[in-house]
Design brief:
With 383 residues, this protein is of the alpha/beta class. The protein has twelve helices and 15 strands. The chain has helices at 13-24, 68-78, 92-97, 99-119, 156-175, 197-209, 230-241, 259-268, 292-298, 304-308, 336-342, 350-372; strands at 4-8, 28-33, 58-62, 82-85, 127-133, 178-184, 187-188, 216-218, 224-225, 228-229, 249-251, 257-258, 272-277, 284-290, 314-318. Helix 1 (13-24) links the parallel strand 1 and strand 2. It is globular, with a radius of gyration of 22 Å. The protein starts with a strand and ends in an 11-residue tail after the last helix. Bound molecules: NADP nicotinamide-adenine-dinucleotide phosphate and ligand G4F. NADP nicotinamide-adenine-dinucleotide phosphate (NAP) is lined by residues 8-9, 11-15, 32, 34, 36, 40, 64-66, 86-90, 105, 131, 133, 184, 186-187, 193.
């Protein structure tokens, strides 16, 4: 008999990688998907199976973390061995604009899942993974951050996730549930949402290289993040639920980098050096040097002449609209417990992550540019 997993947030970055990983391991995967006016299944289309296929290993259900009845019904119908609660309003800056909704989905949503498992008498069968976050450390009380570091959340998102963390611990202790928190530090990939900083940068650098965009406006360039690859991090989620005893684990690389240095690395991937000048809102980055051979190899000869004309131009600026009312300045994790107890090690370092994201976005933006210029795939919705 195949094991059954239920993934909330299956249409997101982590949900997509985790679904693929579990299907390869022989699981039947059920995914919770919000109704939207478009399919919104791009990240999992390669795994999708028509409902008429027999013995499907990926089955999607409409649902929402804010709807207890719906969650209880789906958990009851699917009888999962493992639930991975990845669904969340996951954007820190947006949580300042939608604090009540964020609390409902990211905080109470966790309670709804735990309580459904309890009321359905599934405690002996169902293990639960809660997607906790390094944002809990916020105004960091210790460097690096580990499982015992006190939390100090700095956004409505982090405060909601703090409730999710503790209600998971409480249900574990009160009802002997196999419920665990993964305290994951930032993890990125070619599937990362376009408004998170790494993907915003790799998309923008690709578009600048192809002549589709002149400049990118950023927020706080000095904050530091411990960035890993999402592919490595979903392996950790799985490993956490395979342990005999539930527990909470930090998952991180142990290396931290500023946003400014991430920008430099992304430009370096196409053979371009940028130089930062000025301070705070007046800080800019200027194109300083091109390694033509590398630019041709990564971007293509056809784009070189136009790009060379831009040497000396400003390609990065700062726009205060991207600043947060309260910022998390520094995150760096100590994943000793995961390395020791789970045997987890990341395969990607930051350079390999940036390369993966840049190669993907250059390809994607070339396709977008081709379609804009009237490529045959363009549809005319008004015909
Ligand atoms: P993501 O790409 O933003 O995906 C979030 C997923 O949650 C999407 O499938 C989204 O559906 C779904 N969702 C949002 N609100 C929902 C609701 N009310 N009901 C049902 N589904 C809802 O996020 P991610 O990067 O994969 O992160 C996965 C989880 O890990 C999140 O809980 C996030 O907070 C947490 N986390 C992420 C990181 C990181 O660096 N990536 C680090 C630590 C923790 P739509 O597609 O319909 O929007
Ligand atoms: O990429 P970010 O938006 O990620 P953030 O806020 O660290 O949150 C992500 O990681 C958390 C784990 O620590 C997750 F829990 C959460 O769900 C999400 O996946 O911003 C990273 C840093 C911040 O300091 C931000 O101020 O980049 C800075 N930044 C500078 N300019 C920017 C920008 N962030 C965004 N999104 N856009 C900018 O233009």
């Amino acid at each position: 008999m195949s094991k059954v997993a239920l993934i909330t947030g299956i249409t997101g970055q982590d949900g997509a990688y985790l679904a693929e990983y579990l299907i390869k391991k022989g699981y039947v995967v059920h995914g919770l998907k919000r109704r939207s006016s478009m399919f919104n299944t791009d990240r999992i289309d390669h795994l999708y199976q028509d409902p008429h296929v027999e013995n499907r290993n990926l089955i999607l259900h409409y649902g929402d973390l804010t709807d207890s009845l719906n969650l209880t019904r789906i958990i009851g119908e699917t009888q999962p061995d493992e639930i991975y609660n990845l669904a969340a309003m996951s954007h820190v800056k947006v949580s300042f604009d939608t604090p009540e909704y964020t609390a409902n989905a990211d905080g109470l949503g966790v309670l709804r899942i735990l309580e459904a498992v309890r009321l359905l008498n599934l405690i002996p069968k169902t293990r639960i993974y809660q997607a906790s976050t390094s944002e809990l450390y916020g105004l960091v009380q210790e460097v690096p951050q580990k499982e015992t570091t006190p939390f100090y959340p700095r956004s409505p998102y982090a405060v909601a996730k703090l409730y999710g963390y503790w209600i998971t611990v409480n249900y574990r202790e009160a009802y002997k549930m196999h419920a665990s928190n993964g305290i994951l530090f930032n993890h990125e990939s070619p599937l990362r949402g376009e408004t998170f900083v790494t993907r915003k940068v790799t998309r923008a650098v690709s578009r600048i290289a192809l002549g589709m965009q002149k400049k990118v406006y950023m927020g706080n360039l000095s904050s530091k993040r411990d960035w890993g690859h999402a592919k490595d991090y979903v392996r950790a989620m799985y490993a956490i639920l395979q342990q005999d005893e539930p527990s909470d684990y930090v998952i991180a690389t142990g290396i931290t980098t500023t946003i400014r240095d991430f920008l430099k690395m992304a430009f370096a991937e196409i053979g371009v050096e940028i130089v930062f000048k000025g301070e705070h809102v007046n800080e800019v980055a200027v194109l300083n040097y091109i390694d033509e051979r590398m630019f041709i190899e990564r971007v293509g000869e056809a784009y070189l002449d136009n790009f060379k004309k831009r040497i000396g131009d400003e390609v990065v600026g700062v726009d205060p609209q991207y600043f947060r009312p309260t910022e998390v300045d520094l995150l760096i994790g100590d994943a000793t417990k995961a390395r020791t107890c789970l045997g987890w090690e990341p395969k990607y370092d930051l350079a390999a992550l940036v390369e993966d994201m840049m190669l993907n976005d250059i390809k994607l933006m070339k396709k977008e540019s081709y379609l804009r210029k009237g490529g045959y795939e363009i549809l005319n919705y008004f015909e």
